[in-house]
Sequence to fold (1530 residues):
Amino acid sequence: MNDTSRQASVRLRIPEPTAHTDLVAAAGTRCVAIAGEARRPDLDENAISVASMRDHVIRVLDDEGNAVGPWAGALSRSELEAGLHDMMLVRSFDARMLRAHRQGKISFYMQCLGEEAIACASQWALKPGDMNFPTYRQQGLLVSSDYPMVDMMNQILSNTHDPLLGRQLPVMYSSKEHRFFSISGNLATQFVQAVGWAMAAALDGSDAVASAWIGEGASAESDFHSALVFASTYQAPVILNVVNNQWAISTPEDFARGAAATFADRGLGFGIPSLRVDGNDYLAVHAVTAWAAERARTGLGPTLIEWVTFRVGPHSTSDDPTGYRPDVAGQFPLGDPIDRLRQHMVTCGEWDDTRQTALQESVDQVVSKAFEEADSFGSVMRGDVSSAATMFDDVFATMPPHLVEQRAQFERSQRLQNEGS
Amino acid sequence: MNDTSRQASVRLRIPEPTAHTDLVAAAGTRCVAIAGEARRPDLDENAISVASMRDHVIRVLDDEGNAVGPWAGALSRSELEAGLHDMMLVRSFDARMLRAHRQGKISFYMQCLGEEAIACASQWALKPGDMNFPTYRQQGLLVSSDYPMVDMMNQILSNTHDPLLGRQLPVMYSSKEHRFFSISGNLATQFVQAVGWAMAAALDGSDAVASAWIGEGASAESDFHSALVFASTYQAPVILNVVNNQWAISTPEDFARGAAATFADRGLGFGIPSLRVDGNDYLAVHAVTAWAAERARTGLGPTLIEWVTFRVGPHSTSDDPTGYRPDVAGQFPLGDPIDRLRQHMVTCGEWDDTRQTALQESVDQVVSKAFEEADSFGSVMRGDVSSAATMFDDVFATMPPHLVEQRAQFERSQRLQNEGS
Amino acid sequence: MPAMTMIQAIRDAHFVAMERDSKVVVFGQDVGFFGGVFRCTQGLQEHFGTGRCFDAPINESGIVGVAIGMAAYGLRPCVEIQFADYMYPAYDQIVSEAARLRHRSAGDFTAPLTIRMPMGGGIFGGQTHSQSPEALFTHVAGIKTVVPSNPYDAKGLLLAAIEDDDPVIFLEPKRVYNGPFDGHHDRPLTPWSAHPLSDVPEGYYTIDLGSARVHRPGNDLTVLAYGTLVHVAQAAAEETGIDAEIIDLRTLVPLDVDMIITSVVKTGRCLVVHEATRTSGFGAELSATVQERAFHHLEAPVGRVCGWDTPYPHAHEWSYFPGPDRVGQAMRNIMDEQMTGVIA
Amino acid sequence: MPAMTMIQAIRDAHFVAMERDSKVVVFGQDVGFFGGVFRCTQGLQEHFGTGRCFDAPINESGIVGVAIGMAAYGLRPCVEIQFADYMYPAYDQIVSEAARLRHRSAGDFTAPLTIRMPMGGGIFGGQTHSQSPEALFTHVAGIKTVVPSNPYDAKGLLLAAIEDDDPVIFLEPKRVYNGPFDGHHDRPLTPWSAHPLSDVPEGYYTIDLGSARVHRPGNDLTVLAYGTLVHVAQAAAEETGIDAEIIDLRTLVPLDVDMIITSVVKTGRCLVVHEATRTSGFGAELSATVQERAFHHLEAPVGRVCGWDTPYPHAHEWSYFPGPDRVGQAMRNIMDEQMTGVIA
Ligand SMILES: Cc1ncc(C[n+]2csc(CCOP(=O)(O)OP(=O)(O)O)c2C)c(N)n1
Ligand SMILES: Cc1ncc(C[n+]2csc(CCOP(=O)(O)OP(=O)(O)O)c2C)c(N)n1
Ligand SMILES: [Mg+2]
Ligand SMILES: [Mg+2]
Fold:
């Protein structure tokens, strides 16, 4: 097949990311951000004009913990404390769930270690009535909106109090009340649904905003494109969040990004104003989300935001990253969002070690108490689950005859089985 | 549902293109091109640098028929004549097929009136061994590569000599020999296949280039995105042609383009050098294709080209555009590519009316002769088709038992039917 | 009552649904300004404005994904896929999302949307304008699948589909858009106006999803059909003179099993017909169901007449299409109990 | 011969295929550097280089579309979809393109590619890591569908699939990746090493696509199964003491109809089992086929035990999974001829 008479200089480029061997260096090269440097575009600035900032990563907190530049200044002292609280609660929650996994109490878990700022600060910048379309790594949205932690745990344990009746894999939460759209196991599908929800809100005369979430790896999926097409064409009031945590399971971000310099560039191709933001900077996340939400709410259309962060933990409890990258071992290659916010509050003279310790104790206690309660409702591992016959419910609004019949067959076969044993 | 307490300023933008009522103005506003103005980037210039040209439409032929600027000058006199010949042959072919449709000899046809330069000049710029992945509007690729016209007609007539054995809708040609990939009725699927073909060529050490084709409407499809992701990541040697003829059936290009200024911008989002070119200018099409092919062949990766043109005719013979746009009636809103090349040759002193008339007669005669021959092989409308049992062939390389059985049943039922009648 | 074609009946259903419920929105490729390539949405944009009926980019996954988001918000989208053959890019959104949203969220979020698509062959459309993908929907828990065969049913079923609180796939057999095509392609087409089922009441009415209809009563053989094939079966019954009971299923999921089994128990014989490829077609489910539930009443195996297991050809369309000859031969075979092996 | 797990056998098949034919290329999500989330491609990139085995972006349509283009060029891609549940975005490329390319181009272009995907439940994977979509492939003309149940078959079938000149869907029942799971989730897993079918010859051998295998000979009842359910059926036969003949279909299209019918003619009874949802599952095709061809030999209706028509649940996985109890009950029912209506 190989026609040697044609001496070609074409060689297929298979990305060979340095991240496989030196992940800190790899992440670092793409994420240099100078606090305060990036300007704050007008709300109605167009995509091309906004793209003049494409070499900048928006960052508010400098290395000393000062909030600097045009994106600083929106949050009050108590809001900062709430932010710290939320992020610490998420981290404590994650840690407890990982322990539960090691203890064999749950079968599966996905943490967001090092990415806490993104979901927590984003939620804080949204308004009641806005709707998130999350992935599995935005537990911070629920925690920050005061969703009962015990219900998150009930879902994870798939126990008798699981609001989803044991139907979903752990962490695939859903809460309409808390404006958290049902998580799908299929990547990217929710991104375009968020655009549809936003279109509906606009058609309905509401000023509610949809916030769509996707990982940098999943942005390679087709529904990412569908979302951008529809958001761009109809100027839907939606925030398009791309969480670039550098990894998609074992695959470095290079494979999804290709030859583009950034994921924010994707938005540029659709005339959607797109920004690149330090995702480990609570203040930056809050400020940029608020800016994008304001754009959406005032009829200025969609905004795409690339959140630069780092997946510090394994992909999930099923994953062992030592097979594909050096051990991170307690490092936060792009900074620890919790520590950075804490330091800022200390720098502002509004925080000290005593308060920090007290807060840590308080969040840990909240988590412990919640887990105690959830644990008391049992777990799927111990066979404490909702009635199995409920699996026939909610396939349709009204159960059609064939499912009524199948449920009866199921119950009969259960009876026979119990008699037999 | 409508919560009037929230007075929103969000209104969904449903594009209301002026093209529905004033198509010439609409097309004109987006397509101002000053001949010779656009620079010629270095082959290895990156996407961002190339994007500095995004306000320009590359054009070589000025209104007086002079070839001007850095993209001019690559074609010899005889090549120009060949180009004129090819385009005129395509147009004559289209006209004959439309007549055949009116005469009830064929059931369906799709012309490319006004877009002849794109396929014809592009083919001329490719090398043997390169492979096109066309849509239904690139008959010029076949005509320019000397594919037997009678076989095109046989396919359209689905007659006893149809190389595709009556399996495909008219115009869905396929010819590996002529480097024309089998056309799919499903939009956009071939765009990503072209990238795969190009990747295979590179892996194989060949310097062959793939040329992928898509309409501006179909660029909204997901496989357009898939193609760009893979082309960008692996730097595949592929030319990504987006033919923007302003219309997708009844839908103006605005719906696919959204808020982006151009379709070339899409490539920018992937770091793919992208150009916008006057598609009705044979010289520009040839020069830019040659440039992109050279890039691919020397290992510099993919190029995206938006060809600005105008769909002068109806979408297909099933379509009546008067339901959605003013009558074009013999106008070429963005110019007639044939007339522009002819004028250039006249301006260069290499052409005159006598030659033009002779060439017209000659191409018309070629078409007539071909149709006479094809017609002599019958048509599906008259029942002259390949043996019906051949429909069971080529489902698999080797016919599996269930198809052997079904073919036998088919033949038995045909026999019974014939006995019955 | 005015005689309507199926296109007019579908258009009328849209008008009625949109008048009754401001949450109903309609979009799709060429659906807005132009009114659809088959003109099923003609006049809607003009009447209801661009906010209720609009054109969409050519991206089926986007069309359905956006509709799901809208439905989750509280609207009731009714979207068009231009041809059923082009639904595949939307298949993930249909199967993984619309079908499972209610279940996976324990009723918290729902997807009340209708996805219309012209299906079936007989219009010389070749392999990408002729497909019948119903079995790809019936296998999926959480969606309903509807196939009307006539204008009256089309309107009532479409109104029921739009009102339904779950996703409904609404397959329109395009060969009978303009007349009750009986499979004799070489004879002149009867217009709908000559057929009683073109009497379409004005205004609102619905037909229950899950209810079949006896299209032709009979005693000797039950024929299970839907869409275009209902009319083909009718022609075959007339031509063979067999006293066949033809059941027009109308909805495939939920299926009207009672009506089917009652008929087979009466006739003792059953033939299933459809245009889709045979292997794993919906006919397999029908055949399996009938033999499971009426085994001891069957005097002959349940037969199937289907499209061949090949792509839908262009020139050989009428050799592929299960026309009245093939259907009639199968009916005779079953009556003769001579059937061994597969029916042609 | 070394005892291999199914994962090792699949990995070995890749090595053999890639050694034999430089046109074989392997790619997919996490397939290259890491070797796949189930480790089926581990070591390939290191051994053959990044030009033969590499990671792909998360875009299933792109993976299959690119593979089709490569196959049309002349390579023989073997790609992985990480879970069968994620094949839907690629469904258009599979159905509209790979399956029809040879036919629509009259043999001019072909798509010799293999698409591997782990399928089935039993790993507490919830609704998006448990599906069995085989019927969505068997309905489509132009693709072959393969489901191995053990290491020996997996290697031989995968080598045959890669060599095949047409697109092959290769479904790997992940519940038996590491042992011949019999459906008793509460008992310790038997490793493959204790099973004779883990004796996998070194080097090259193939198993014909289209040939089934008698997994357990018997006289009283034919059980048609594939993948994990072969082992479940075996357990049910042992536990009920019914002299069942279990046929492991191995390939669904082409189907080994002769072996099936020969067995049913002998036993006079037939049960079909699979994990996929019941309605329009591949079991319907099997049931329809058996009653069409062996009607006069059947002493009871053909039964089906399948997944329920619901999404695959997480916590209630074992209530959903058609385990040995349900299969055994159905076998008894069929033996008792007491079966009326649908079998649970
Ligand atoms: C359609 C689909 N394909 C593949 C998968 C398997 N999968 C689950 S998570 C994942 C990686 C996603 O990476 P990214 O989008 O970067 O998100 P992150 O995990 O980093 O938050 C993959 C490939 C899936 N869930 N859905
Ligand atoms: C997947 C798919 N969706 C829809 C169609 C129906 N369709 C055929 S051509 C067409 C318009 C395409 O417009 P464009 O891409 O601009 O190409 P042009 O016809 O202008 O050359 C549409 C919607 C299709 N063929 N395939
Ligand atoms: Mg990631
Ligand atoms: Mg167009």
Residues 1-6 of chain A have pLDDT under 50 and may be disordered. The radius of gyration of chain A is 23 Å. Chain A touches chain D through 59 residues (CB under 8 Å).
